[in-house]
């Protein structure tokens, strides 16, 4: 994948998501981090994505075990002052983990920004 494209994607998230805290792009199968960025030095997006990867794997297994024949679009975790969105690529190869301040973020707009860039990101991942 082009590092330039990834850097553009990460900075688009930082610029266009109100209340942005951090974002990470992670390969689901291996847990390899393609890249991440944060505005809070105390928040480690790579570590957060690694823990949340277990949530993704568990949910993918549950969907399969239940024969739901559905795709997971995203997983929302609402904390007292943050929202965490885990957006899974259509090909289930990678996830985008995004954290934002709940008092500033607009959930609908945040999801729209992710959706807008997810297809391009999928095309550029090797």
From TrEMBL:
Organism: Flavobacterium soyae
Domain of life: Bacteria
Protein name: Roadblock/LAMTOR2 domain-containing protein
